[in-house]
């Protein structure tokens, strides 16, 4: 059975039938986020400093539970929220003991990520391979050619393992 989520995106998609697959804030936002943003403002106005109790004790656990249910995860506690790319990257890096970390990236990353990666390279904490994104038609082949299977002992990238909440920091990881 196919589940359609289109009706949740009516403000962004309108009646359009087009498919939009961009990541981050460039993707269509669900309709519910309009009311949610207004509610956040009202919560702040009502609770002022007390808003953080509401956010950390109620809003975030509820959001974790919703996502865990949708993603069929064993525990909502395996999900965490990060405010920006910097925090996301540092959380991933903190799970990998071996340094320098090897990163397969592209020459088309967003500014904040590419800048932080360059800094990590400069500090000797990352070795980065950048695959050219253009010509786009053959990008998949180029990237696949640079992805060397078997480099990670559990058969998937640590980043994916981290995202799945299984942890990846064990000494078993070979890079
Ligand atoms: C594609 C993309 N990635 C990431 C970000 C966020 O960057 P940062 O985490 O540095 O705020 C943005 C912000 O506009 C973006 O457009």
How is this fold's topology laid out?
Layout: H1 10-13, H2 32-47, H3 51-71, H4 85-93, E1 101-106, H5 111-122, E2 126-131, H6 139-146, H7 158-163
Parallel strand pairs: 1-2
Bound molecules: pyridoxal-5'-phosphate (PLP).
| Helix-and-strand structural type | mainly alpha
Shape: globular
Strand content: 5-15%
**How many separate helices?**
7
Strand order of the largest sheet: 1-2
- Major sheet size, sense and barrel closure: 2 strands, parallel
The count of DSSP E runs of length 2 or more, i.e. the number of strands, is 2
The value of Rg in angstroms is 20 Å
**What is the element string, with H for helices and E for strands?**
HHHHEHEHH
Percentage of residues in helical conformation = 40-55%
**Which ligands, by name, code or SMILES, are bound?**
pyridoxal-5'-phosphate
Unreliable spans: 152-175
Total individual domains = 2
Distance between the termini: 39 Å
Average pLDDT reading: 83
What features would you highlight for this structure?
175 residues; 2 domains; disordered C terminus
